[in-house]
């Protein structure tokens, strides 16, 4: 299996809703960032393997792989949320998925049914899980390019681009998915298994599907290959 590449840039959580969280370029920042996943220009791949990383160096990835083997710094333009000012520049990061991307949960068996390479921020009980928080990220999915040693997504499978998992691991607060959804991720706003299957089949494979905590489809948007796409979602934990 040739590696699948996904390019990402993160601005994890702000404490105000999206209407004020993304000001115009000439406006001052009006809300604090409580978790920041943007990567400084001087950051190296080896930094992903230790405590200097904004992400957990141990999760969630193939058992035999380190993050410095999975992540890459692609030659691409800056994302919407990257800093580009002198002395404070950040850069996108790319993750690759191969047949070695088999995760083994603590005390469990290898999860051979799917592949994982997911940057993990927070611990499930930090400041991003209280009050009202807005999560921002940008993603760019390269087109197929065998000459460079990678392939694009096989959209007969499901790809989960970003998600906020519940602390009990029983589901997600939200997720954004491409391809054909796994059965456990079928839309929940249907009455029978057959209805869920029919509803899932109507969702375009070559699109990002945004699901809420009940796997209800909130919105669908086409995948724009080789272009940055910017997303934001506001969670109100009090409600």
Provide keyphrases for this structure.
mainly beta, single chain, 4-stranded antiparallel β-sheet, 7% helix, globular, 3 helices, 6-stranded antiparallel β-sheet, 239 residues
Explain this structure.
This protein has helices at residues 18-21, 67-70, 193-201, and strands at residues 4-14, 33-35, 39-40, 71-72, 84-85, 88-91, 93-97, 132-140, 158-165, 172-179, 207-211, 217-222, 229-236. It is mostly beta strands. Strand 11 and strand 12 form a beta hairpin. It is globular, with a radius of gyration of 18 Å. Residues 15-26 have low confidence and may be disordered.
Short synopsis of the structure:
This protein is mostly beta strands. Helices cover 7% and strands 31% of the residues.
Question: How helical, in percent, are the residues?
Answer: under 10%
Uncertain residue segments: 15-26
Largest sheet geometry? 6 strands, antiparallel
User: Mean pLDDT score, rounded?
Assistant: 80
Structural class from helices and strands?
mainly beta
Could you give the count of β-strands?
13
**What portion of the residues fall into strands of 2 or more residues?**
25-35%
Determine Rg (CA atoms, Å): 18 Å
- Described by the principal axes of the CA atoms, the overall outline is globular
- Put simply, the count of helices is 3
Order of helices and strands: EHEEHEEEEEEEHEEE
N-C termini distance: 44 Å
Question: What's the structural blueprint in terms of helices and strands?
Answer:
Elements lengths: L3 E11 L3 H4 L11 E3 L3 E2 L26 H4 E2 L11 E2 L2 E4 L1 E5 L34 E9 L17 E8 L6 E8 L13 H9 L5 E5 L5 E6 L6 E8 L3
